[in-house]
Amino acid sequence: MYPYKILSSRMIYGLALNMLLFLAYSHVGRAESIDELYEKAKKEGGKLVLYAPLSTRTQEVVLPTFEKRFPGIKIDHIDATSDALVTRAVTEARGGKVFGDIFAATLAYITRMRNQKLLVDMALPEAAAYPNNLKGSYWVATDTQFYVAGWNTNLLKKGKDPRQFEDFADPRWKKRLIAEPRDFQLLLGLAKYKYNSDEKAIDLLKKIALNNVEFHKGHSQLAELLVAGQAEVCMTCYSHHFPPRIKKGGPIQSMLTEGVGEVGGTVAIFKDAPHPNTALLWARWIISEEGQKVYAQAGETPAHPKVEPVEKTRPAKIYLLSVDDVKEFPRYEKLWKEIFQLR
Questions:
Q1: Which of 228, 6, 270, 256 is nearest to 119 (CA)?
Q2: pLDDT at site 32
Q3: Which of 83, 95, 139, 224 is most exposed, with minimal Cβ within 10 Å?
Q4: 259, 319 in Cβ contact below 8 A?
């Protein structure tokens, strides 16, 4: 008996053909530039349907820049909350129709769309520059956001500012802290990426809870409360909310020694997208250094490792949540609510 299986001539032919196709495809993929892809996209009707909950500033900066960069292609932006966009896409798919080309949202919603089999795998050459925790087989991060502490500089004496989240366990912060009631990501980030221990993270937050944290919905509201002097210290603010308010004279400062990070936005392509080459063009451009620099100009924190935000918003130490953490959101949300006695 021979130790190796003998291949038939048909099997050998099939393997050879597949190899030739692979090599040909690889060669074309390497050679095709974004501008060459643009030529294909122009033949699809000059339209890109974008399902994305973008900030006003991002809409005003990024979308027109894309249209100027690629003349003849207009963006039909479907703007709504991520929940509403997912519901719309699922409803359309069940009706046998696909209108969207690109879907953009946080990892939690991207995962939901993937589970509904509405997104396709994509191989983007520009994604090679991204670390594994900022990309997957069907998505690439476009921007990141960070949960950090911040304070009103008029109310907090100089030299008394916090340097780490552990500082808030001190009784001197009693009735001086505000936070967003839905920010269980802080607990998750500390537990998995700072302490590598649920017990230590829970113990810290229980001590902080004894200081009677006051909760307000909406990160913009948290920042505005600080600016107005109606609150002294915020425990779960977004770092990118500070620079524009400081520029306007707001007496606030953020703690950038450490922070919990998450993917703020992603890019993914709809299965059976009406304009597949245009969708691919957007996806490749938006994660390229060129596209990411435009994201930075819009006040976002780019996901691309080589593109710095216009303002300093990245903490020195980052505890970055991954796509694998999404499945654990319900457990940490439950723990968060129990610790702070939230409904």
A1: 270
A2: 87
A3: 95
A4: yes
Give the residue extent of every domain in the chain.
9-141+263-302, 144-262+314-340
Please choose, from the candidates 207, 215, 144, 141, the residue with its C-alpha nearest in 3D space to the C-alpha of residue 177: 215
Tens digits of residue pLDDT in 157-189: 888 899 999 999 999 999 999 999 999 999 999
**Full-model pTM:** 0.80
Fold type of domain 144-262+314-340: D-Maltodextrin-Binding Protein; domain 2 (3.40.190)
Q: Which CATH superfamily is domain 9-141+263-302 in?
A: Periplasmic binding protein-like II (3.40.190.10)
Residue 334: C-alpha distances to residues 181, 211, 219, 227 (Å): 12, 20, 20, 31
Tokens of 150: 């911040």
Q: 177: which strand partners? A: 233
3-class secondary structure per residue, the chain? CCCCCCCCHHHHHHHHHHHHHHHHHHHHHHHCCHHHHHHHHHCCCCEEEEECCCCHHHHHHHHHHHHHHCCCCEEEEECCCHHHHHHHHHHHHHCCCCCCCEECCCHHHHHHHHHCCCECCCCCHHHHHCCHHHECCCCEEEEEEEEEEEEECCCCCCCCCCCCHHHHHCHHHCCCEEECCCCCHHHHHHHHHHCCCHHHHHHHHHHHHCCCCEECCCHHHHHHHHHCCCCCEEEEEEHHHHHHHHHCCCCEEECCCEEEEEEEEEEEEECCCCCHHHHHHHHHHHHCHHHHHHHHHCCCEECCCCCCCCCCCCCCEEEECCHHHHHHHHHHHHHHHHHHCCC
Residue 47 pLDDT: 96
Query: How confident is the model at residue 121, as a pLDDT?
Result: 97
Q: Which two tokens stand for residue 333?
A: 């949300």
> In this predicted structure, what is the pLDDT of residue 239?
95
